[in-house]
Each structure stands twice: as C-alpha cells, then as structure tokens.
C-alpha cells in the first residue's frame, strides 16, 4: 500500500510540478497513403532545457529512441535537434498510421516511470490515441481517443473554490510551477479534406485538428483546480477521479467524438 501511495504521488507531482514549466507538443501528420511523421517538440526553460544544449545528446538520443518504440511498431527517429537553452525538436517517421499509438505524455517523469509504477498512473496516461486506416476511393482515418479522457468529462466537476485557494498556492510556489505547463496533441492530414466530424478543427488550418490540450495558465487562474492539485489524491484509487476534476476545472480541450473520422485524398 505504501508503494502504491508513493507511486500515485509521484505520478501526480510528475505531471503537474516536475513538468510544470514544460511545453510539450505532438503533431501527427498523415499522408493519403497512410504514412507520415510525428513531430515532437519539448521546451523546458531553465536548467533542464540547458542540459539538452550543453551536449547531453547521448541521453536525449536514448530517450527519443524509447519514444519511437512507444509510438508503435515500425516508427523510427528521422531527425532531432537541440533548441539551445530550451529543449529539443524531433521528427519520427511511420509507414502505417494504423500501427501508431500516441501517448498523451511522450517524455518526462510520467513517460519514464517503470511498469509497476505506471499501473497506478491515471488511466488517460496509461492509455494512448489509436488509429485505423482504410483506402478505397479516398483515404479514411479513424481516431480513437483514450476512453478515460471522454469519461473524465462526464464526471461532475467541483465548482466551489476551497478556502486555501490562490494565495496559499502562490505562497508555496505551485502557481509559478504550473503556469508554464502546456501539453498539446494535434493531427493533420495531407491532401484534400473531403469530410470530417472533428470537435476542434483549426480555423486557419482546415486540415489540422486539436486532439488534446492542457494549459497551465488556465490551471493557475483557477483556485479550485489549484486546491485540488495541491491536496493530492487520498488513495491511489482516487487518481482517475482527481485527474478528471483537474481536466474539467482547467478547461482542457479534448476531442470528444468517438470515433473521430477524417476522409481525404
């Protein structure tokens, strides 16, 4: 029980504190033949970002190779580069999007946890975005979002801010820790888009769709979310409900169509 509580605490702190200053973005780009690229960008202003630009390339390369394995069978690291003083950008190639599996958190404390600890992570961290692909007269891409994300939106949210609220959170440094957090997963298809039922299409890029976004500045502006975050889960079994509340209170953007279908050529 003690280990389970420790694991739950590590998961929680790892996502919202240790990665508090991280801007992690994943772009999945799919061609009409089902091949494509995954572009992963992670910027970490401060000491961790500086580590990437000081020459810790071997460690970064190893982490990116592991990320390629997590992305699915046949996914390879095409190229990567350090962003001086900030982090890195990497491009992964795949030949079949149906073999692709995209975790919400690709790198960082959560992604690097062992299998035993990951058992007690929130369900939406354990699950991944999955794809189906068919090609007849046109290409048909079906996107399956993690069930835990849509389930989280169905849970009742607490709307009253507890007394501790913003002042206490600011006092212990939590507000500053999470304000820079941004996790984003987007999908784009190449070619002519024929039909789509996406919930969050980008107005200036009609072929690009937002699948998931969690922004720390929204958390920092919500006293109830900060209070829920600072308290932590009472037991490891409370983790999913707690993360569901945080997703709601932070105004996280989530693709809710199950499934999401894109037809293009």
In short:
With 265 residues, this protein is of the alpha+beta class.
Q: How is this structure best described in words?
A:
By secondary structure, the protein is an alpha+beta fold. It is built from eleven helices and 13 strands. The protein has helices at 2-18, 47-53, 57-70, 115-118, 123-126, 147-154, 165-171, 174-179, 216-220, 223-231, 239-249, and strands at residues 23-30, 36-43, 76-83, 87-94, 101-103, 128-135, 139-144, 182-189, 193-196, 201-202, 205-215, 253-254, 260-264. The strands form two sheets. Strands 1, 2, 3, 4, 8, 10, 11 and 12 form an eight-stranded mixed β-sheet that branches. A five-stranded antiparallel β-sheet has the order 5-6-7-13-9. A hairpin with a 3-residue loop joins β6 and β7. The chain is globular, with a radius of gyration of 19 Å. Mean pLDDT is 77; it is low at 1-14 and 159-171.
Provide keyphrases for this structure.
265 residues; alpha+beta; five-stranded antiparallel beta sheet
């Amino acid at each position: 029980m003690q280990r389970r509580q420790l694991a739950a605490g590590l998961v929680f702190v790892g996502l919202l504190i240790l990665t508090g200053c991280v801007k992690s973005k994943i772009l999945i780009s799919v061609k009409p033949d089902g091949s494509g690229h995954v572009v992963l960008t992670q910027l970490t202003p401060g000491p961790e970002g500086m580590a990437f630009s000081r020459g810790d390339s071997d460690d970064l390369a190893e982490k990116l190779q592991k990320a390629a394995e997590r992305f699915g069978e046949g996914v390879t690291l095409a190229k990567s580069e350090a962003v001086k003083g900030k982090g890195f950008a990497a491009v992964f190639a795949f030949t079949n999007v149906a073999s692709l599996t995209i975790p919400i958190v690709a790198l960082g404390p959560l992604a690097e946890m062992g299998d035993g600890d990951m058992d007690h992570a929130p369900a939406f961290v354990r699950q991944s975005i999955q794809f189906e692909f068919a090609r007849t007269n046109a290409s048909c891409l079906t996107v399956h979002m993690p069930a835990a994300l849509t389930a989280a939106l169905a849970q009742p949210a607490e709307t009253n801010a507890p007394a501790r609220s913003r002042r206490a959170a600011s006092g212990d440094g939590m507000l500053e820790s999470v304000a820079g957090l941004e996790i984003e997963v987007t999908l784009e298809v190449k070619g002519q888009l024929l039909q789509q039922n996406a919930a969050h299409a980008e107005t200036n890029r009609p072929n690009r769709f937002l699948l998931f976004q969690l922004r720390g500045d929204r958390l920092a502006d919500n006293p109830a979310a900060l209070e829920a975050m600072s308290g932590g889960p009472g037991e490891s079994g409370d983790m999913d409900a707690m993360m569901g509340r945080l997703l709601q209170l932070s105004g996280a953007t989530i693709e809710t169509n199950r499934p999401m279908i894109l037809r293009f050529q």
